[in-house]
């Protein structure tokens, strides 16, 4: 029995899906199934069984779940303690939405790294709200920046920066008919039902057939500028395209949406020191400036693309 197997079990139990656990870990479904099978064989219990479209805990799995969660968390704390004793940099794993990853994560991590000059090694990963709620309590990540994750007593979610979500389209052109009939162009954040974009699409009752998902926000805006449809956008991030006249704001009865990015960590009594430092940094004028106007990026030697945080070995 290994910490990896226990971590996989906890993820499957929380997400109620082998496929969802594989997606979060960035591995194949058979890899998750093999890890789960080894744990089942060792403990002599199925632990989780299929019930319709979901996986549910057996009685043995239900009793194991709390213990396994604590063991995974203690394993992360043990690793951090040994690294600290060896004088190694503390590891900080930051989860962000796809929009924040595209525009803000790299310069934010760069500025935070300079402030602590070699003491903290930060990596960033892209996740939706549901994945963040699983990865943080299971110590597979340390900080999340994006949606409000309040509601879990194990997590502390605090507002960081208010922003406005607007709808943009080609200059001097408004689509015909109601918003539910417009072509909507979104980045992966639009597929997250807990994101502001996801809520806006639901509010307009936009059918799936009228939504087109692009790999990033810039590609969605480019398609909107070419007349392919309309795209939601954070007003400060799209300001350059608006100033250049490449896009214009499309007025609707539900926009602009007044929204807020939140920083979420474990509860204060369990929060790692590196996570505490990043949380405090996000309230500084330097961090606020970067989140409002990220700028041109970072030097190539310092660039680290966002990836999925994984416990796989």
Task: Please tell me about this protein's structure.
This is LysR family transcriptional regulator. It holds the Pfam family HTH_1. It comes from Phytohabitans maris. InterPro entries: LysR_HTH_N (IPR000847), LysR_subst-bd (IPR005119), WH-like_DNA-bd_sf (IPR036388), WH_DNA-bd_sf (IPR036390). Residues 1-58 form the HTH lysR-type domain. With 313 residues, the chain is of the alpha/beta class. The protein is 41% helix and 20% strand. The protein is built from twelve helices and eleven strands. It has helices at 3-15, 18-25, 29-43, 59-85, 98-103, 105-116, 129-135, 196-203, 217-225, 239-243, 273-281, 285-292; strands spanning 48-51, 54-57, 90-96, 120-126, 143-146, 155-169, 184-186, 211-213, 231-234, 248-249, 257-266. The strands form three sheets. Strands 3, 4, 5, 6, 9, 10 and 11 form a seven-stranded mixed sheet that branches. It has a two-stranded antiparallel ribbon with strand order 1-2. The chain has a two-stranded parallel sheet with strand order 7-8. Helix 8 (196-203) links the parallel strand 7 (184-186) and strand 8.
Helix proportion of residues, in percent?
40-55%
Oligomeric state of shown chains: single chain
What separation lies between the terminal Cα atoms?
14 Å
- Uncertain ranges: 307-313
- Total beta-strand segments: 11
Let me know the average pLDDT: 88
The arrangement of helices and strands along the chain is HHHEEHEHHEHEEEHEHEHEEHH
Number of helices, counting only DSSP H or I runs of 4 residues or more:
12
> For the report, how would you describe the main beta sheet?
7 strands, mixed
Please state the structural category: alpha/beta
Question: Whole-number radius of gyration?
Answer: 21 Å
| Coarse shape | globular
Question: Strand percentage, roughly?
Answer: 15-25%
Pfam families: HTH_1, LysR_substrate
Keywords: DNA-binding, Transcription, Transcription regulation
Family: Belongs to the LysR transcriptional regulatory family.
Protein name: LysR family transcriptional regulator
């Amino acid at each position: 029995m290994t910490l990896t197997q226990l971590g996989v079990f906890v993820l499957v139990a929380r997400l109620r899906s082998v496929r969802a656990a594989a997606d979060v870990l960035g591995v194949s479904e058979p890899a998750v199934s093999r890890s789960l099978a080894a744990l089942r064989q060792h403990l002599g219990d199925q632990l989780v069984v299929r019930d319709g479209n979901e996986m549910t805990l057996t009685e043995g799995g239900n009793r194991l779940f709390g213990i396994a969660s604590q063991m995974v968390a203690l394993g992360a704390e043990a690793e951090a303690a040994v690294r600290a004793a060896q004088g190694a940099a503390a590891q900080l794993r930051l989860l962000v939405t796809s929009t924040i990853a595209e525009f803000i994560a790299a310069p934010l991590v760069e500025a935070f790294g300079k402030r602590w000059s070699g003491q903290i090694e930060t990596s960033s990963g892209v996740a939706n709200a549901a994945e963040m709620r699983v990865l943080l309590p299971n110590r597979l990540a340390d900080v999340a920046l994006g949606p409000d994750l309040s509601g879990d007593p194990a997590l502390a979610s605090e507002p960081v920066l208010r922003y406005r979500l607007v709808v943009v389209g080609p200059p001097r052109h408004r689509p015909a008919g109601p918003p539910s009939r417009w072509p909507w162009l979104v980045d992966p954040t639009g597929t997250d039902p807990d994101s502001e974009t996801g809520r806006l699409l639901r509010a307009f009752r936009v059918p799936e057939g009228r939504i087109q998902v692009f790999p990033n926000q810039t590609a969605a805006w480019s398609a909107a500028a070419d007349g392919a449809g309309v795209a939601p956008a954070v007003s400060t991030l799209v300001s350059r395209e608006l100033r250049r006249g490449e896009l214009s704001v499309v007025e609707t009865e539900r926009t602009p949406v007044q929204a807020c990015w939140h920083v979420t960590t474990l509860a204060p009594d369990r929060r790692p020191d590196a996570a505490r430092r990043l949380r405090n940094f996000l309230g500084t004028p330097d961090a606020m400036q970067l989140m409002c106007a990220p700028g041109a990026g970072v030097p190539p030697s310092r660039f680290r693309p966002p990836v999925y945080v994984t416990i796989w070995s």
